[in-house]
Design brief:
332 residues; alpha/beta; Rossmann fold; Dihydrodipicolinate Reductase, domain 2; 2 domains; seven-stranded mixed beta sheet; six-stranded parallel beta sheet; 15 strands; 28% helix
Length: 332
C-alpha cells in the first residue's frame, strides 16, 4: 500500500532524517506534504527528483493524508495531532506529548509491535535514549526477567536538534581559534565539555530525560515494577548516543549467554572485541540502523552471576527517532 504522507517539522534534523530513510527504504507513498512553521513556508525542497514547496502547518493541513510523521515538538503535536486524526490520518508522533497517555501506544517495533493495532489515531515514538537503551535489553528480559537497570547515558548534540549540532560545530571552531564560545542552544559550553542533560529538573533531583527513560521503559515492557534509575549527560558528539547499562537479572546469566541471545536479536549488532579493546563508538553507529552492543561482562559485585554490564551506541536521529517512526508506519 502506498500512503499519502505528511511530514510535520520537515526542516528539522529528524524531519530531514525522515526523508533520507524514506528514500533509502523505498517506502511507498502516493503523495507527500512538507509541513513546517511559518518561517519556512514557501521555501522549496528537493526530494527524489521532485521539488516540493514547504507549507505552513495548520489544522487544515491533513486533508487527504493517511499517515502524518510528526517531529515538531510536544506543544505543536498537542495542537495539531488531534486535527490530523480528525481528518482521517494516523499520527506517528516523535515528541513527548502523548508517550505516557494510557490511550496511546508507545511502540518500538522490535519489542511491542502488537500495540500498534490498539491505536486510536496516534502512536507515540519513545524518547531516543529509551529506544537505544532497551532494544538490546528486551531479548534478554524475555528469557530472564530484568529486576533492575542502572543506566548512564552519553548523549549527542543531535538530541537537541539541528541548531544544537551547529552550535557544537561552531563552538569547536571558535575555541580552536582562541575565541570565546557562543552559547545559544545549550546552557553550557558543549564543545570539549560534558554536562548533566539540559532538560528541566524535577523536585526529586532527576531531570526530564532521566524520568522519561524510567517511565517509558516500564510502559513499553509492560512491567510497572521493573526498577530503573538513570543519569543522563550531554557530550560533544554530533549524532550518536552511548549508554552504560548495568542489569540485575532474576536468574543467573553469563556474558556468553548474553552474546548468544543478542547475535540473532533484531536491530542489534554486537561489537565486542576484547582482544583489540574495540567496542561500540558513536562513529560506528552514526548513519546505521542497528544499536551496537559491546563490553559485555559479568557484574562481579552481584552474587550468583545475576549481573551484566553492557555498553551500547545508537544513532539518535535514526533508530532513536526517524527510523523507529518509519518502522511503525511500515507495520501499519
Amino acid at each position: 500500500m502506498a500512503y499519502r504522507l505528511a511530514i510535520a517539522g520537515v526542516t528539522g534534523a529528524v524531519g530531514q532524517e525522515f526523508l533520507s530513510i524514506i528514500e533509502q527504504r523505498n517506502f511507498a507513498f502516493k503523495s507527500i506534504k512538507m509541513l513546517a512553521s511559518s518561517r519556512s513556508a514557501g521555501k522549496t525542497m528537493s526530494f527524489k527528483g521532485k521539488t516540493y514547496t514547504i507549507e505552513e502547518m495548520t489544522k487544515d493541513s491533513f486533508k487527504d493524508v493517511d499517515v502524518a510523521l510528526f517531529s515538531a515538538g510536544a506543544s505543536r503535536s498537542r495542537e495539531f495531532a488531534p486535527a490530523a486524526v480528525k481528518a482521517g490520518a494516523v499520527v506517528v508522533d516523535n515528541s513527548s506529548a502523548y508517550r505516557m497517555d494510557p490511550e496511546v501506544p508507545l511502540v518500538i517495533p522490535e519489542i511491542n509491535p502488537e500495540m500498534i493495532k490498539k491505536h486510536k489515531g496516534i502512536i507515540a515514538n519513545p524518547n531516543c535514549s529509551t529506544i537505544i537503551g532497551i532494544v538490546p535489553i528486551w531479548p534478554l528480559h524475555k528469557i530472564n526477567p530484568v529486576k533492575r537497570m542502572v543506566v548512564s547515558t552519553y548523549q549527542a548534540a543531535s538530541g537537541a536538534g539541528m541548531s544544537a549540532m551547529l552550535e557544537l560545530e561552531n563552538q569547536s571552531r571558535e575555541i580552536l581559534e582562541g575565541k570565546p564560545p557562543t552559547k545559544n542552544v545549550f546552557p553550557h559550553q558543549i564543545a570539549f565539555n560534558c554536562f548533566s542533560h539540559n532538560s528541566a529538573l524535577g523536585p526529586n533531583g532527576y531531570n526530564e530525560e532521566e524520568t522519561k527513560l524510567v517511565k517509558e521503559t516500564r510502559k513499553i515492557f509492560n512491567c510497572p515494577n521493573i526498577a530503573v534509575t538513570a543519569t543522563c549527560v550531554r557530550i560533544p558528539v554530533m549524532r550518536a548516543h552511548c549508554e552504560s547499562i548495568n542489569l540485575e537479572f532474576t536468574n543467573p546469566i553469563t556474558p556468553d549467554e548474553v552474546r548468544n541471545l543478542l547475535k540473532t536479536a533484531p536491530g542489534v549488532t554486537i561489537l565486542d572485541d576484547r582482544e583489540h579493546n574495540r567496542f561500540p563508538m558513536p562513529i560506528d553507529a552514526s548513519g546505521k540502523d542497528d544499536v551496537f552492543v559491546g563490553r559485555i561482562r559479568q557484574d562481579e559485585s552481584l552474587p550468583g552471576n545475576r549481573g551484566i554490564n553492557l555498553w551500547v551506541s545508537g544513532d539518535q536521529l535514526r533508530k532513536g527517532a526517524a527510523l523507529n517512526a518509519i518502522q511503525i508506519a511500515e507495520l501499519l
